[in-house]
Amino acid sequence: MTTRSVSRRTLLKQGTAAAVATGAALMGGGSPATAQTAVQSGDRGPNVAGRKFRGVVSTGFGPNTTRLVDLTLLPISGRQVVIQTEASQCCYTMCARVLGTQDPPDPLGPQAPVIVNDPNEPTIQGHGGVGRVLAIGADVKRVAVGDRVIVPVTAQCGQCYQCLRGRADRCQFGVGAKTVPIATMSNGTKVVQAGNIGGLADYMVAFEEAVIPVFTNASSEELAMLHCVSGTGLGMVMTLAPVEPGSHVAVFGMGPVGLSAVQGARIMGAAQVIAVDPIKVRRDLALKLGATAALDPNVDKGWDLVARIKTLCKPTDRIYAGGGYQVANRAGIAANIGPDFVIEAVGYDRFMPKVEAGPDPTGMEPLAQVWQTTPMGGHLCTCGVGFPTQAKVAFPVGQWTNGSKTHHSSQFGGTNSMRDMPRYIRLIEQGLFDAKSMITDKYTLDNVMDAYDAVAYRTTVTAMIVMG
Ligand SMILES: [Zn+2]
Ligand SMILES: [Zn+2]
Questions:
Q1: 350 is in which domain, residue-wise?
Q2: Ligand with smallest separation from the Cα of 165
Q3: What is the DSSP-derived secondary structure letter of residue 228?
Q4: Burial status of residue 445 (CB atoms within 10 A of its CB: 0-12, 13-18, 19 or more)
Q5: pLDDT at 317 over 70
Q6: What residues have their beta carbon closer than 5 A to ion ligand 2?
Q7: Is residue 428 part of a domain?
Q8: pLDDT given at position 22
Q9: Which residue, 26, 96, 126, 188, has fewest beta-carbon neighbours within 10 Å?
């Protein structure tokens, strides 16, 4: 008797009923012609070792250390998957490294992360991407040759402690793992990929833990919103601290992460979604995508912004789910009134914007404001990036210790990639999540530096690299 476990891929491709039927046939010794069979039939794709391709490689820190170079693939190991990249979205997180303004990490700094990799080893940049499986190692079970896949910024192995407790955003196969060479440069130097995934290259070579099979007709560009920014925005409001129907939500920062959080809050049934951003184009886009109000932090400044948001969230005679109640303090605004969910997606200006700049380029004022805006019992999700590693933020001690504010911090918005990507894709298919409107500029690998310029100086919302 043949016994095989049903894979997640089979469930996604065939549905539960068909997968169960397939299992029954297998148990009975049948020979179902299924996709699952294809994974196990020995079709591993061509031998890709020696193939030429191009990738955006950093060879150090500082000006002109990142460029598009010719590369040659190395042989793959048993659990690796070779993906022909179709689209990859440019993250603000990478701007400083790519544009050469980032200092190397200080291995002795008290706040420095544990460094397991040589920061100067040549590295293909990227936070993942979307593409099609070209070849798989002998032990790969999660995907088959020809599958469309998303390679998200964070893996979900499904086996480690963090995955089992629902925090795959901290999967041990994800950020911080030891990187392995996947290619060589023309001088023979070995090249790794950022996070063992890369993305800004014609090929990605990822361990199967980081490869998510997807079965959809959505475009690769739409799907590529999900591998980092939109996965983060949707994750915060749908997984990390799920927005309750009828609640009030405030989102600070209308980059692609914040705009995705606005959409996620709308999809979850928020009664009110208040967007905050200094850039008018972004506020207008937020209103188009589901925000019910859009505020300019250069108009409502400091505490006034906090008070304005709290005032918008005062209880009315409408039925609402937020649970806010009014006990006015001396400022006339109750500490326990405010949005039930507050999302921070602002971060630090590593580059001075060439459009409307916010009131505080360090991002510290927005961090104070989101804390003040969160009412007692409310939820605060933060995900801002780019802060100097030694920067500090302070909170009023009374509210910090027993203010009953719940702070959620995460990698990738708490998204569990293997579980959540398929449902995010359903939202695109149903027209509930508008990925297209957030893709404001498209580039190729040849002009990747222009793409990062636009992202760094905030003259675009999302720069999408589309491979030729
Ligand atoms: Zn990213
Ligand atoms: Zn894991």
A1: 229-414
A2: 2
A3: T
A4: buried
A5: no
A6: 157, 160, 163, 171
A7: no
A8: 59
A9: 188
